[in-house]
Amino acid sequence: MKIVQVLATSGGIGGLEQHTFNLANQLALSNDVHVIAHPCYAEKFNRNVQFHSVDFSRSRWNIRLLWQLTKLIKTIRPQIVHAQAGKASGLIARIRPFLSDVKIVTTVHGTKKDKSAYLVGDAVIAVSKALTQGISEAKAHIVYNGVYPQTALSVDAKQSLKHSIDQQFLSLDSTKKIVMCIGRLEPVKNIALLIQAMQGVDANLWIVGDGSQRQSLEAQVKQQNMQDQVVFLGFRSDARDLVQLADVVVLSSDREGFPLVMVEALQADKVMVSTKVNGVIEWLPDEYLADIGDVMELRQALKNALESAAIADFENLFTRAKNELTVDAMAQQTLKIYEHLLHT
Q: Which domain holds residue 6?
């Protein structure tokens, strides 16, 4: 099957981008996969993927961009064009009249009030049940994000990694349990809420990631006199290894599609706490969820998660995540949608 994946972002790497990298690379093991994306992503795809560079930093209304995209797709002559997220779907919607004999698939990755651009798809994939709202049942499909299994660190490797962090942050009591937050330090992640919720919780908070709010969040930690409890590790390429050191992984976002950090935490057998964002509410037990923006509920959920009995509530989820939330499962489900379209 000849497939074109369109990724129209231009620089950052979050769940949307990682989803596209993983999906294209996996599909390319048994299909003719082409990716049209910004040149900054070229090295994220394996040798089986044919990469086509397009400058998507231009507006979705840019005539030259629309012309270039149309010409490229018509040259490739795929059976399936799959647009990832809103901008890609909007672009494909505008050039749809010029793409004959092609089946269109779009994927909704985040909360959007206006889903009109996605409706150009002959099939619309949502990464969580909540995101299917406003899409007809005839078109809607749910395919959860998946990740590649992470290799478990040896006991010695874990000890070495933890020691390196402890030596970097001598202000912390290294005997305390670790609550870990991994993500971009941007307003939508609401890390300020998490820091506030950690007051009165007997654990350290490791914040892994960087972003525009780092300076203000560090100032908040000082203002609340929490320097001996909260540390900022910045961007780490070994974030998935760090998860293995956590006692609890936490997500305090105001908005999500289907967060990969939850997938990675559950696959690493880690108890997870979150605000009631999309995707998460379809998986986690109620005791470990908090209303969005509610500091008291988030604090209580953290305390629940740090109890030794919490692990029993997650054992079935750990197994389910290892079976269902994988790149292979995600790719196989997507491929079935493609095949169905081609036979209708």
A: 2-148+326-342
